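re: that chain from earlier
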Amino acid sequence: DKYSAKTMLLISTGMLAVVTFLSAALGHVTNNTWFIVLIVLLRLIQGANGGVIDVIAFAITAKIYPGNIALTTSIIETSLNLAVAFSPFLGGVFYEAGGFYLSFVVTACAVTVVLIGTFFGVTNVDTKRDSAGGNLYSVLKEVAVWFPAWHSAACMILFNFYIPILSPYVQASFNAGPTFAGFALLINTAGICITAPFLGHAMDKLNPYVFMAASAFLLPAAYWFLGPAPFVAGVVAASKTQLVVTLAVIGVLVPLGCYPGLLIMFDLYTVKYGKMPLEVKNYITAIYCASF
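^ sequence. v structure.
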């Protein structure tokens, strides 16, 4: 609120590059205790700067494209999901090629390129507070603002909770290894990446509340087919195909519930107070990002 979005974006991206370069140097730390302490500390700093970048991205796009909030939200989250899907694979390739050091150096160089691109290519969009600004307390006390944020958080919990158990599940049920588990997760993420921009566009043009309500019923229902659960055990036989199809469907239903959240939070606040100062919009954007 106090400084320009571009300034904060440059600071956060620069810190991210420095910390990633420092992480590469940890390969020379021989003491296990110090290694754990330092890597956790550096990862915390990375996470903090990544969170700042996330909030700024939403704040800038909400300012530039006020009529396409759901679409821009879906595009940002699609890029994040693509990174989550392919980064472990790329990290493994770099680790096998050059070990711990190369993995972080390549990442740090990529962040440095982004930093340079941000400096020369990002417009200095004004997201600073205005004279009619609200306050953080007025946002935090609004249940109407928190409910869509909780719905987005719940969708992400449902999306992520099976990731650590998927590999042992497919091993026990189908005698399949981590390669199939990775393929299933890739299909899951592809469901989001392919459909999210189209859903975001539809949410901006149609009623976003309908999309959120649909996800509230359909997403939990889809989970009955993971396993499968007792209610469908006599109808649907557990198979690799059934698992992959179910994960693909969940990949479509997650953005159905997450991406209208920011648009609905803006709408509910505006309906109640008649206007939404830029400072309040920034607070709501931060709450929405935190829900993920």
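The chain is about 80% helix and 0% strand.
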